[in-house]
Amino acid sequence: MEQDANMTGSPGTIKELAESYRSGSASPVSTIRASLAKIERLGRKFNCFITVLNDSALASAEASEERYRKGTPLGPLDGVPVAVKDVFYVQGVRCTAGSKILADNIAGYDATVVRKLKDAGAVLVGTTNMHEFAAGVTSDNPHYGPVLNPWDTTRVAGGSSGGSAVAVATGMAEGALGTDTAGSVRIPAALCGVLGFKPTYGRVSRLGVVPLAASLDTVGVLSLSAWDAAAMLGVISGHDQTDMTTVDEPVPDYVESLSTPFNGARVGIVRQYFHEDIDPMVEENSAAFASRLREIGCVVEEADLAGIQEVYDRWLVIRRAEATAFHERWLRTAPELYGEDVRSLLELGKNVLAVDYVNALNARPSTIEGWSELMRRFDFLVAPVTSIPAPKVGQSKTMIQGKEVAVYSALNRLTLPFNYVGFPSVSIPSGIVDGLPLGVQVAGRLFDEAALLRLVHAYEGRFGPYPPPSLHE
Question: What is the largest CA-CA distance in the chain?
Fold first, then answer.
């Protein structure tokens, strides 16, 4: 995509917006009107929304503006335009999960995280386009059309939370929610040049979220900064008595934790698996990122982590079995309503043996224990997010160092191990190669999202904001 001299400017952050509301230099109503106007101009171009909530968004903005007028805002998200992936139930709004099967599905209640966002005053501007049923990594949707990368509209935005990443990258929303089963928050964040944060499994409720694989699915945040991610995570995190997968673990004040000085950390680079079969440009980008970590006081060393290939194999068994179990009824009664790629993947789950599924689940505790043991020597692990930059729309194969690799694997192979062990992981914009952004992921200890946020905050403070894409409006 050629560069446009008339850039729309950098999208604003939640922190900047909250400060402007408090000072009176901006208002929720004018901001939401501008957000909806941008969705009208750019949403169709990049095909990143499925449902736009014009009327309810303006009504919420008016209520927010009244609170600011009275000096009683609900917090930093009050009046902020936020989007949610179209797997989150929003009461009275259709929730399609990017599918034809659920095209007329109207949510009867708010997902827990949606309710929490509303209670914090966030303004939902719409539900975002995605890979069908969150069962892929490109957001090339056969029913609603592909989500297009704002850096190059011939390329995918990544998935499955592609629409959420594009909405944030282009400033249609200041923050967005996605889901991450194999990297579906971190992958589109990396390919679109935004921050993608997957918290610890069990940190955030999934009640009211259409599942892919329940024991792997994690609600995550897409934003432009660590501060913004901290503000959103602080709102949506916490134990939910109606979701037995959530953990009753205290939730720190993530925003306040950013005021704690970052005094460096021990960072481990795992060469085996994570640095095999990756594009040389990705390798070079990751090395540059590691050097920048050293500049902010980190000690970066090699780390050994045995058995990662087995982790991939076990993740695959769990993902296939659980996704196919959820879809069994529709696969039996309406297989023709699925896109070909999603149906093919779901059909593979029928071949998973019960003993293999149980063994994959039973191996998780010992694997988590082994990885946690490594994390006693390191504060963080760092690895590329994807093996390649954003591929072309419709591309199914890619060449990496003379070897043909499936795009599906090239995009999710490096992220999914952290879903299996449940560690929090964040995709940080790390560079631009041939006009396309790349991301590096940093994983932390279980339930220590605050430490990850402090690292990202320190990194941003040293190396500045990431440039937005140039947009043709």
Answer: 64
Q: Is residue 25 helix, strand or coil?
A: coil
38, 85, 116, 118: the catalytic one is 85
Instruction: Tell me what percent of the residues of the chain surpass a pLDDT of 70.
Output: 97
Active site residue 425: no
DSSP E strand stretches across 113-194:
123-128, 140-141, 145-146, 148-149, 152-156, 175-180
Cross-strand partners of 366: none
Tokens 């892919």 sit on residue: 212
Catalytic residue among 160, 161, 164, 430: 160
Question: What contacts 70, CB < 8 A, 6 or more positions away?
Answer: none
3-state helix, strand, coil in the chain (%, to 5): 40, 20, 40
pTM for this predicted structure: 0.96
Among the listed residues 35, 60, 99, 184, the single catalytic one is: 184
Task: From 97, 153, 201, 160, select the one nearest 411 (Cα to Cα).
Answer: 160
Share the mean pLDDT of the chain.
95
What's the CA gap between 181 and 229, in Å, rounded? 19
Topology of domain 14-463 in CATH is Amidase signature (AS) enzymes (3.90.1300)
Q: What percent of the chain has pLDDT over 90?
A: 94
Reduce the DSSP state of residue 411 to 3 states and report it: helix
| Structural domain boundaries in the chain | 14-463
Round to the nearest angstrom and report the end-to-end CA distance of the chain.
Answer: 13
d(CA 158, CA 162): 5
397 a catalytic residue: no
Q: Is 160 tagged catalytic?
A: yes
**Torsion (CA) 212, 217, 218, 222 in degrees, nearest 10:** -40
Task: Report long-range pairs for 304-307 (Cβ below 8 Å, ≥24 apart).
Answer: 304/270, 304/272, 304/374, 305/270, 305/272, 305/273, 305/371, 305/374, 305/381, 306/370, 307/367, 307/370
Q: Are strands 123-128 and 81-85 parallel, antiparallel or unpaired?
A: parallel
